[in-house]
Write a structure and sequence with these properties.
There is one protein chain. Helix 2 links the parallel strand 1 and strand 2. The radius of gyration is 18 Å and the shape is elongated. It is 26% helix and 33% strand. With 116 residues, the protein is α+β, with helices and mostly antiparallel strands. It has a domain of 80 residues: hypothetical protein PF0899 fold (2-Layer Sandwich). Helix 1 packs across helix 2. The strands form 2 sheets. Strands 2-1-6 form a 3-stranded mixed sheet, with helices on one face. The chain has a 3-stranded antiparallel sheet with strand order 4-3-5, with no helix packed on it. The structure holds zinc ion. The site of zinc ion (ZN) has 8 residues, from loops.
Length: 116
């Protein structure tokens, strides 16, 4: 499962953040995950809840996920539009094929709360 390796990477990053802040515990973790990132958020939370137990620093951390919608912008007419289609064919306004992703590829830790 792809999400387990992401959760393990998160654990490493959270341990580093905790050390930098001389934290005794990580209490809250907020993630930003884009629709386009390919991550199944439920699976990621499940994986994190499993791997965190091996790390006293993280074992009581709760995790929440901000899902970022997929937004494309048309390079021709400038229209930005939200879509569930990972690869929209063309701009809904001018039918241009010249589209670029504005958001939806995010995959990072947005915020960490710690106890010092
Ligand atoms: Zn357009």
């Amino acid at each position: 499962m792809h999400e387990v390796s992401i959760a393990l990477g998160m654990v490493e990053e959270l341990k580093r953040i905790a050390a930098e802040n001389n934290a005794k515990k990580v209490t809250n973790v907020k993630l930003k995950i884009g629709k386009m990132s390919g991550i199944v958020t439920d699976s990621l939370i499940f994986a994190f809840d499993a791997v965190k137990l091996e790390h006293p620093l993280l074992s009581s951390a709760t995790i929440s996920v901000d899902e970022v919608p997929l937004v494309y912008a048309c390079s021709k007419c400038g229209k930005a539009f939200e879509t569930d289609d990972l690869y929209p064919a063309s701009c809904p306004d001018c039918n241009s094929y010249n589209l670029k992703i504005l958001s939806g590829e995010e995959q990072h830790i947005e915020n960490v709360e710690v106890e010092v």
